Amino acid sequence: MTEPKTAVITGSSSGIGLGIARGLAGAGMNVVLNGIEPEAQIEPIRAAIEAEFGVKATYDRANLMDPAGVVELMTRAEETFGRVDVLVNNAGIQFVSPVEDFPDEKWQAILNLNLSAAFYATKAAVPGMKARKWGRIINIASTHGLVASPFKSAYVAAKHGLIGFTKTIALETAEDGITVNAICPGYVLTPLVEAQIPDTAKARGITEEDVKRDVLLAAQPTKKFVTVEELAGLAVFLSTDAAASITGSALPVDGGWTAQ
User: Fold this and answer.
1) Is 155 a catalytic residue?
2) Which pLDDT score is estimated for 200?
3) Among residues 59, 120, 155, 187, which one is catalytic?
4) Which position among 95, 157, 207, 255 has the lowest Cβ density within 10 Å, counted as fewest Cβ atoms?
């Protein structure tokens, strides 16, 4: 019997990361969840993944703002499962401000979590993947890794950097059975986004539906939010042997945003 593969998904206690973790678990992989919430809060989610998909799931509260924390996450995953076959660098934060008012600490925090954490996790994962001659690294970038919007200087810089990093590591590992790709979602209706809609509606004096269509989805021609399930489906495909020749790519899932 073939040993199950193991996937580490950073920032996977909710939203996109959790959706991808569930997708990979559904494909038969053991999964390492990661987040900042207390273990008791995530335990029902972790247990449900094991019960529903028949795989093993763990939860790790490693501090990804700290390089040592990222290494500890990867080390614990290797120790628990003996291997990390798939790494999904998903953890991220956002802050919006004109550049002249952008707080230095927010700039640094966004680069630390959105970009540097992916570097340290990838650096830790690649040796084992090379030894096994198989690996999948999936970086969750953003449409803002391909195009810019005002007032998001740190986020846009980090996501553009993540795509550049993706291409570089793809070239470095191209002969090792490893693929490295970036998924670039448009707007996804995660709990974080959904929570902002009522305040935006009140501030602008418009309905919540108007906020969704004319503010959040203004740039997406489909006028539909990207779903977590769509992103999970792509991540699962990239983790298969059928995707062995897809590497160094930045794949938009953005309802046509970047086609304009």
Assistant:
1) yes
2) 85
3) 155
4) 207
